[in-house]
């Protein structure tokens, strides 16, 4: 029953044209949100809204994760950085695209995801292990607005919290040819989801993918809250 609710949600996102790429759709189907929610929220897992995961933070809405996973243009083998692990769900969906179980392990990419709230980093780690992505996702507890220099540069970077402006360390840690997504703007209003593409010459092209509403990015390059 619950699985069919999830399947229906993914079908609707496909009909609406939000999910367009078969491997992205397949990954969204393969990683239902339920396993990444606190028990009290699991009944709402297939409702297309953000949901609270504790500590004032939220798991993103399925349509938002779908939009971002499409916009990232992910490929098998990519090394990816997420800022804002939260529940670990978004990272698991990305891992399913860049390191699908069907591809040989030698071709697998990896997701590094940074979470600043220690309890959430632990929550994400437990969820990721239980869901079977422990070999493809690494959770780091710390200030992700500084990126993760130890494993840089990255093919893809995405931020799931609202930044006041583009955090410079994240752009620096993006490979030439890489793509980064970041919601930028005022926390009390909505933000613009920016897609930044770094050319082979290091020049950065900026596109505005539209209005979004994320919780604030904190830390060194975060909001003054
Ligand atoms: N991607 C998550 C949802 C993100 S909510 C999921 O799939 O569930 C945004 C998260 O960003 C919150 O958990 C918040 O604690 C975290 N965050 C905010 N500022 C951060 C920072 N500077 N570094 C790392 N994580 C941060």
Write a structural description.
This protein has 225 residues and is α/β, with parallel strands linked by helices. It has one domain: 3-Layer(aba) Sandwich (Rossmann fold), CATH 3.40.50.150. Helices cover 28% and strands 25% of the residues. The protein contains six helices and nine strands, in the order H-H-E-E-H-E-H-E-H-E-E-H-E-E-E. It has helices spanning 2-15, 22-30, 62-71, 89-98, 118-131, 168-172, and strands spanning 51-54, 57-59, 79-83, 110-115, 137-141, 154-159, 174-184, 191-198, 204-212. It has a seven-stranded mixed sheet. The protein starts with a helix and ends in a 13-residue tail after the last strand. The mean pLDDT is 96. Bound molecules: S-adenosyl-L-homocysteine (SAH). S-adenosyl-L-homocysteine (SAH) binds next to strand 2, helix 4 and strand 4.
């Amino acid at each position: 029953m619950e699985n069919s609710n999830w399947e229906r949600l993914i079908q609707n996102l496909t009909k609406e044209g939000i999910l367009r790429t078969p491997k992205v759709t397949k990954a969204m189907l393969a990683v239902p949100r339920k396993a990444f929610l606190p028990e009290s929220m699991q009944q709402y897992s297939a409702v297309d809204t953000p949901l609270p995961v504790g500590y004032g933070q939220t798991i993103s809405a399925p349509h938002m994760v779908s939009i971002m996973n499409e916009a990232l243009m992910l490929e098998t083998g990519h090394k990816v950085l997420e800022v804002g692990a939260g529940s670990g769900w978004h990272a698991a969906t990305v891992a399913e695209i860049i390191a699908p179980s069907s591809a040989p392990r030698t071709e697998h990419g990896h997701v590094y995801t940074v979470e600043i709230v220690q309890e959430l980093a632990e929550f994400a780690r437990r969820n990721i292990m239980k869901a079977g992505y422990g070999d493809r996702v690494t959770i780091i507890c710390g200030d992700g607005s500084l990126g993760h220099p130890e494993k840089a540069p990255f093919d893809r970077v995405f931020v799931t919290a609202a930044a006041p402006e583009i955090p410079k360390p994240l752009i620096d840690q993006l490979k030439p040819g890489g793509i980064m997504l970041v919601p930028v703007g005022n926390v009390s209003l909505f933000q613009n989801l920016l897609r930044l593409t770094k050319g082979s010459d290091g020049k950065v092209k900026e596109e505005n993918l539209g209005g979004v509403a994320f919780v604030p990015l904190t830390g060194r390059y975060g909001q003054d809250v």
